Amino acid sequence: MQRGTWQSGFIKANGDLHASDLRKASFNGGNVFNTTNVSLGLLALHGAYGTSQDYTTGANGANQIYFPIDGRPTSNPSWVRMSEMDLGSAGTNGLKWMGLMACNSLRQQNWNSMQSAGWKPFNGNLHLLLGANSVVDDGNLIIWAKYMLGLDLNPKETIYNAWRDSASFCVHRPVQFAIAGFDDCKQDMLTGTNSYTPQGNVFYDALPVAQ
Questions:
Q1: Long-range contacts for 113-120 (Cβ within 8 Å, ≥24 apart)?
Q2: Is 200 a residue whose pLDDT tops 80?
Q3: pTM value?
C-alpha cells in the first residue's frame, strides 16, 4: 500500500490490540477502526465459529463468529463476538472497506444465522466487508494490494475482484473467500468512491474456491 502512496492510519500488533478496540460503544468499546483517515482497514487474527445459538446480550440467539484477542503475555483470550462490532464511519476519509483475514470470518452458515437474527456487523457507512468462508492464511495480502493499486504490470481491479483474485495466492489451499456489504458498492475502486453513501441492499457472496 505504501508503494501506492497510502499511509498507515494506525497499527496495533500483539498486546497492543485489546478486545475493547473492536467493540462498539454500546459494548463499552472504542470501535478503533471507525476513526479519521482510515478508509481501508485490515484485521488479521484467528477466527472461530459457533455451532449453537448464542443468547449473550446483543447476540440475539445467532450462531456467532468469534475473534480471540489473546492479551499476551497472559494466556486467557478475550473473545469478541461479531455482533459486538459496528464497522463503518462517515465522511470521505471514514472506514469504507474492511478486510478480516481470519479463518471463517464470514462463514456462510453463521452469516445466514446472524441475518436471521436481524443484525450485521457494519453500519450504513461501510461499503464492503471482506473475509473467508473457510480456513485461510495471509499469503494473499500483498497480492490483494497489488491488484487494487495496479502495481507490477497488473491492471487496477475493483476491491471486490482484487480480494477474489488474490485468494489463489494463499499458501494453504483450497480456500474460499467471501464478501458482504451493499450491492451498489461491488464496483468500488480504492479512489473515487470514498464519499459515496450506500443505497443498495445487503448482499453476501461466497466466492469461487481457490485451488
A1: 113/53, 113/62, 113/63, 114/60, 114/62, 114/63, 114/64, 114/65, 114/82, 114/83, 115/202, 115/204, 116/62, 117/59, 117/60, 117/61, 117/62, 118/60, 119/60, 119/62, 119/83, 120/180, 120/202
A2: yes
A3: 0.96
